[in-house]
Amino acid sequence: MKKLIVLAALALSPVFSAQEMVNKPVQSYQTAQYQAKRKAFVENLLSKMTLDEKIGQLNLPTSGDFTTGQAQSSDIGKKVEQGLVGGLFNIKGAEKIKAVQKVAIEKSRLKIPLIFGMDVIHGYETTFPIPLGLAASWDMNLVQQSARVAAKEASSDGINWTFSPMVDISREPRWGRVSEGSGEDPYLGSEISKNMVYGYQGKDLSAGNTILACVKHFALYGAGEAGRDYNTVDMSHVRMFNEYFPPYKSAVDAGVASVMASFNEVDGVPATGNKWLQTDVLRKLWNFKGFVVTDYTGINEMIEHGMGDLQQVSALALKAGIDMDMVGEGFLTTLKKSLDEGKVTQAEIDMAARRILEAKYDLGLFDDPYRYGDAKLAAKEVYNMENRNIARSAAAQSMVLLKNENQVLPLKKSGTVAVIGPLVNNSLNMAGTWSVATKHAASVSLMQGLQANYGKEVKFLSAKGANIDYDAKLEDIYAAHGKKTDRDNRSKEELLKEAVDVANKADVIVLAIGESAEMSGESSSRTEITIPQSQVDLLNELKKTGKPIAMVLYTGRPLALTNVKDIPDAIVNAWFAGSEAGNAISDVLFGKVNPSGKLPMTFPRSLGQVPIYYNAKNTGRPLSQDKVDKCVYERFRSNYMDECNTPLYPFGYGLSYTKFSYSDMSVSNPNPKGNQTIQAVVTVTNSGNYDGAEVVQLYIRDIVGSITRPVKELKGFQKIFLKKGESKKVVFDITPESLKFYNGELKLDWEPGEFDIMIGTSSDKVRNSKINWTKE
Ligand code: NOJ
């Protein structure tokens, strides 16, 4: 019998208790009383500081991770002693951090504590899926929880500032850093952005187990030309405000304590020296109150951008609104001279120093400079079983089932399974990009996961089958930062033969192919977004065995899978799933977890379609939907002669082992007026054979506007859990807030008229209701 349940509230997360969740953080440091106290403290301190000491607060070197004993003797140690350092980043370990803090507190004149930053991007030692994967979970409790776990681990080990969340919207899969963000959508990106900030910062930044978040890279870093890292960006302000800015603003609205400037230029001025961006938009328009840090040598790089010499670009950055200089020491070495020459003002230097001191005050460091980092606490907090279980669950939730034919998945818990692929026994590549603190050796490889979880019932055989790439030099470049891929020097034929032999002994093949971890991430742009040929050849060879193939895809970006998608029976996109990758993949393959991930970024058919994204404009010559669906070419329409318009897998797409059917969509009022709230309702039924979770997506199209509007925009989603046979009524509240956009004058407002209200299982499969919303 089917049960009908009305679901009004947000996502159901089967995994976590909500107890620790912070939904509306009332940050103590926002009250007037707190601010008056902080002001008195900081102004008093500033009045005692020399110019050098003030400039010193703006200096953020990297440590090179010296050992404990070197803290004092190193060059940085000396600078700390002289008060010429505001913070340090990427030192790992409570004891080491304490030793440096000790130098600041015991040897520097004013005993100003340092802040300690790190790229804690998707977890600390317990590593979660890469951010693009986490985004695919569409589970905001989980997203927040991942940041909470990361903050607890990192803070117990001495870190009180993370360079996360990275929220750069991107429609460019050539760009390796799409792996670090939440994909292409401003709405989903904004939800994730704020939940990451809540998770890191909690309610109280001085709690000792919360840390400063840093939203980055402000701004538009994901829109570099041709997907080449650090490349030029040029876009209209209307696009910036409507499509690229929302996730940064969402972090600011959530109270993010710091912002990192991006490397790229915006309107012809590098973001690091762009006053319009860092002051007019960020502070004046959005009311940001924290501090802005450059990216790594961002000031110095303005010399190469063609903005002047080090003194000029440092002054430009300070005047633009930059407070802290990461690594380059442009501030440290030139600001005094610029002040003497009248190129910067004392007030500008004071303002930057004030903002750094305020952040330190908020962290409680003036009360207790050793508040963060306690080896005993770290031993309990870091990489404990509870955190690993959360990471395992997050990893399974991030996986996207792209295809499942002949009911190959879930696998049967019996017989023999051939586990084949270049990384099946590799732990080092499981965490993916930005895993500074990851316990790599302990990361669970696919074979380890399968053996540990199902080794008693199932016989697993393994073979490498192919190297990541035929080209050994390229494979070296891919692994240049240390994530070795265990290249096998046997010939291609030998590797294939071994794989085929193993496959012939098995009932089913699990073939794990795709990218290695460092094929995405910073400075990892690719001109091809396909699976390397060595691995495609392996797939084709295994196909000849006639055995069913379940393909596990490792990737940090959307790949063009056109040449492989028809070959395996099933494809699970596992991204880079983190510390617990092998366990989580096993959970999904054997059906312990029914996959529910949905793509946060479009997977194109070919690179030629890029940029391709669901929330595109209609153009004046759109191809009719019928022709789009049938992939029919029409002359003088917006389409390709040699390729369909549709992507391979659209935004929001992802299958389940069960089936969800949508019915009875309706809106509560087709003619709303003014500030009314209406409801869009749909019934979702689990009509398949497994319990499972579904992400129900709400899209809206504004039919006529004063500027052209996208064909659809995500405006809401709910992740619901349905038992086999169960139905739920899903209700979305819609207010004029959902209709707002930045118009030609960059004013945020909504315009009356007709709207399509669409609900569905992915961006391309929706049911539609038309409404007409009038102002009064
Ligand atoms: C450069 C990267 O662009 C940025 O994301 C990172 O936080 C810094 N390096 C510090 O490692």
From TrEMBL:
Main localization, broad class: periplasm
Record EC number: 3.2.1.21
Lineage: Bacteria, Pseudomonadati, Bacteroidota, Flavobacteriia, Flavobacteriales
Pfam families associated with the record: Fn3-like (PF14310), Glyco_hydro_3 (PF00933), Glyco_hydro_3_C (PF01915)
Protein localization: Periplasm
Alphabetical list of Gene3D superfamilies matching this protein: Glycoside hydrolase family 3 C-terminal domain, Glycoside hydrolase, family 3, N-terminal domain, Immunoglobulins
Molecular function in Gene Ontology: beta-glucosidase activity
Organism in which the protein naturally occurs: Chryseobacterium angstadtii
Name of this chain's protein: Periplasmic beta-glucosidase
Superkingdom classification of source: Bacteria
Catalysed reactions, as listed in the record: Hydrolysis of terminal, non-reducing beta-D-glucosyl residues with release of beta-D-glucose
Matches recorded under PANTHER family: LYSOSOMAL BETA GLUCOSIDASE, PERIPLASMIC BETA-GLUCOSIDASE-RELATED
N-terminal signal peptide: 1-18
Family: Belongs to the glycosyl hydrolase 3 family.
InterPro entries reported for this sequence: Cellulose_Degrad_GH3, Fn3-like, GH, Glyco_hydro_3_C, Glyco_hydro_3_C_sf, Glyco_hydro_3_N, Glyco_hydro_3_N_sf, Ig-like_fold
GO cellular component terms, A-Z: periplasmic space
Record keywords, A-Z: Glycosidase, Hydrolase, Periplasm, Signal
Example GO biological process: glucan catabolic process
Domain called Fibronectin type III-like: residue spans: 694-763
